[in-house]
Amino acid sequence: MKKRCAWAGTDPLYIAYHDTEWGVPVYDDETLFEFLILETFQAGLSWITILKKRENFRKAFDNFACKKIANYSEEKYEELMNDKGIIRNKLKIKATITNAQLFMKIQEEFGSFSKYIWDFTNGKPIKNNFKTSEDVPVTTALSDQISKDLKKRGFKFVGSTVMYAFMQATGIVNDHITDCFKYNEV
After folding, report:
1. Active site (annotated) includes residue 17
2. In the chain, where does DSSP find H-type helix?
3. Which domains does the chain have, with CATH numbers?
């Protein structure tokens, strides 16, 4: 039996996410944007809640097409507020529209969001050496720095905890525990 990070538990959806996505370095803007949006919706909720609604989010938010979301009308906002398949939080939905607009500004300024976010680590994942899930922090000085920079640019729901979860999900940091089978694979 494969040894995994304890948080993966026994839910097949969680295990599949752990085994195929979490901690794998992401360099394409589309996937980075998807994770940024999903992590902002996750704030205050469990990640499994978001994973179970992920396909609904993809459908509701035009497959996370940044340019489309940046131009959502009031009618689209109302449609999202009435969509039972997603988290219907007005502040998070409004933040998604704002964050899409700001995401595109970063793309213009840096050439891509990927270049912007990976410049914080000189383009290389940070490989941590945690023995247990309890050792893994919820924030770091780097997540504080990224959060502060994004907030300065006007982003919403990008606190340090959200940004650290984003960094873990997109492989900017490798927080698989050292005896997890994925630790040396990513």
Report:
1. yes
2. 12-20, 29-42, 47-60, 66-70, 74-81, 90-110, 113-118, 141-152, 160-169
3. 6-174 (1.10.340.30)
Q: How confident is the model at residue 96 (pLDDT cuts 50, 70, 90)?
A: very high
Catalytic-role residue among 39, 72, 116, 164:
39
On whether the CB atoms of residues 51 and 11 are closer than 8 A, the answer is no
Q: Is a pLDDT exceeding 90 seen at residue 116?
A: yes
39 is catalytic: yes
The answer to whether the predicted template modeling score (pTM) of the entire model surpasses 0.90 is: yes
Catalytic residue among 7, 17, 27, 77: 17
Asked about 47 being catalytic, the answer comes back as: yes
| DSSP-assigned states of every residue in 148-170 | HHHHHTT-SS--HHHHHHHHHHT
